[in-house]
Amino acid sequence: MFILKINLLRWSQKIIVSFKFLVNSLSIFKPSNFFCNRAIQQMIVVGPESLSICIITAFCIGLVFTLQVVKEFLYLDATSLLGAILSLAFIRELSPVLTAVIIAGRIGSAFTAELATMKITDQIDALYLLKTDPLLYLVFPRVIACTSMLPILNIISWFTSLSISLFTCFVFYNVDPWIFLKSVYLALSYWDFFKSFLKTLIFGLIISCISCSWGLTTVGGSKGVGQSTTSSVVTSLLIIFIMDFILSSVMFYQSSSAIKSL
């Protein structure tokens, strides 16, 4: 592919290899050989250390999106629907996708650069000499960290976006907060939170698998580190957007079928 500066066949093969890393790490996993401290360290990197940028992004997106939408609803005299539309947009699409994009850019690139540097400096071979499996020591803790922290960051981002939307509607457009919150309560369901959780869980797997495999298969010295890092981030973003379309289509079809059955 021209965007990734590699051919399509090689790109597809690398994606398959990335998920083989995950399958292999799961197949050899045992509670006795799980590196708990490594997983906790990576969870701190993915979660608390990424919290500030996620909150700032959610704050700005919520503010801009609300300013763009509220005027149209006021013109249509549909104030009672504001909370429902904004909350559903945030929980279903904006919060999961934007949080995943932030983690792919910040954490995915760091994972790839770190593992690529270890690969070209033969630190991976040193782990084999120490009878330590790199998949369990390096890959599995990062997979656990991304899949566990991304849903939490998603909920925090959603709450931040919804809070700033409520504040903006009240301060700038005199929308009663009670009307806004009532609309949110009536529109949201446990299924919406489950779909959002499922999306972030899959996005976390995509980011961790691709970034780790791109790092562990790096060749070509320091130049290869830069190329692998760029390629892993671009690939992660492309796969995230493609999977978001697929998941949204499937979930929308299921929701429509459930409504028709009623």
Automatic annotation (TrEMBL):
GO terms for cellular component: ATP-binding cassette (ABC) transporter complex. Its main location: membrane. It comes from the Eukaryota. The keyword Kinase does not apply. It is a multi-pass membrane protein. It is found in: Membrane. Keywords: Membrane, Plastid, Transmembrane, Transmembrane helix, Transport. GO terms for molecular function: phospholipid transporter activity. The chain crosses the membrane at residues 50-67, 200-221, 233-253. Pfam families: MlaE (PF02405). Belongs to the MlaE permease family. This is Ycf63. It comes from Synarthrophyton chejuense.
